[in-house]
Amino acid sequence: MKYVSTRGGDQKISSAQAIKKGIADNGGLFVPEKIPKLTKKDLGRLAALPYAERAAEILSLYLDDYDKEKLLGFCRDAYKEASFPGGAAPVSELYENAYMLELYHGPTCAFKDMALQIMPRLLSEALKMTGEEKTAYILVATSGDTGKAALEGYRDVEGVKIKVFYPTDGVSDIQKLQMSVQEGDNVSVQGIDGNFDDAQNGVKKIFSDKALNEKLNEAGYILTSANSINWGRLAPQIVYYISAYLDLYNEGRIKMGEKITFCVPTGNFGNIFAGFLASKMGLPVKRFICASNKNNVLTDFFETGVYSRNREFYKTVSPSMDILISSNLERLLYVFTGCEKTRGYMESLSKTGEYRIAPEELAEIRKYFDGGCTGEEATADRIRATWNNCGRLIDTHTAVAADCAARLAGPGEKVVIVSTASAYKFAADVTAALGGTVNYDRGVLSPLYSLAELTKTDIPAPLAALETKRVRFTGSIPKDQMPDSLFD
Ligand SMILES: *Cc1c(COP(=O)(O)O)cnc(C)c1O
User: Fold this and answer.
1) 26 CA from centroid of ligand 1 (Å)
2) CATH assignment of 88-104+237-424, given 3.30.70.120, 1.10.418.60, 3.40.50.1240, 3.40.50.1100?
3) Which of 11, 297, 384, 464 is buried deepest, with most CB atoms within 10 A?
């Protein structure tokens, strides 16, 4: 299996090289040349396997340059019970014909763990496979969730060092605490004066600074990134769509071959695109509902065929979906319109902030996708209704999807709502949605205790443990000191 750029050109590389490189030389994203197929018989066979083995089987179709036994070892290690005490990706019933795919049982209580627990193992192996002798130095600029998930995933991984930059005043107190207590010998966390864009631009500058890169090379490092456009983050996400289907089948909720719908709370379009690949492989899917918050650039795109970032940006209670450029949509454009047109659309996006696809292209895409969006008040209402009527606590991102699913699903349509975070990760807003008030007598962690008291539910262990962890990383530096801080 070879990987090509969404923007064309003749660069054709193996999966290990794609994972090491991250982005194609012409600025495009790596996509598999062909999408492998799963037959009904394959699905039946996978149904009998535990999650890690399903993952290894599915990943080996895409990462066919990796040793299959090694992949199995990586999957077993990544998705072990100690890391996912509630199961890697269990499915539960929410109400009749609506199910939740729970992707929040990992070490940081959000779905990014599903990819970031295994991707470091894939990268570390890719370095060996490509004969790389230097240490891979991973730089991340984060507005909160990704940084912590990357730190947890990469800590103490062989051949890798990681540094996360975050805007000192631009992340929540709990997120800051989560990062500042990070354990591991190869990790470092640095607050910077400024906002998220400052952090991100600082990292981009480091990547393009030739002299600095040479200096890092001499010190034994090559720079890489762990962001969501890397194929190594996308591929592991295909697995849980297939796994959810198999679990519903095993429980007798669906017949083999019956089509179901997935409703996905979407930001960068990575999660939902992985689901689309699963359907292209042969998973019986009726449609994908792309759920957005008030930043509904994707809803408009699926409605009109126009993608326009020229609009107001809103800060919402579902911050991981506060995005105006959904980078992974480029991969979908590639599948439906080819590399020439994709290159044109991306040029238009960077020059004018928008592009328009042809009506017949939109019609094809709409055979698979519908868009929906949920505002702030409806998000809070859905959290309250789900708690009152189903006895289930959902976070603000999941609530956006649950709301879209409830409004858009037809009679008898079976919908899997993809649940991307624990409610405790967004405890203050969830508590408010339930009509409670946070009692700030226990410092930064107060919202966790207030939500636990209000609902008589347990704080997830990784968040409860923050109370006793030692703070290792403090302080904030001006952004022009970011390059020097790499050598600390
Ligand atoms: C990252 C994230 C999303 C959005 O996922 P994409 O792959 O960017 O579409 C949704 N919910 C939560 C909680 C997230 O952390």
Assistant:
1) 26
2) 3.40.50.1100
3) 297
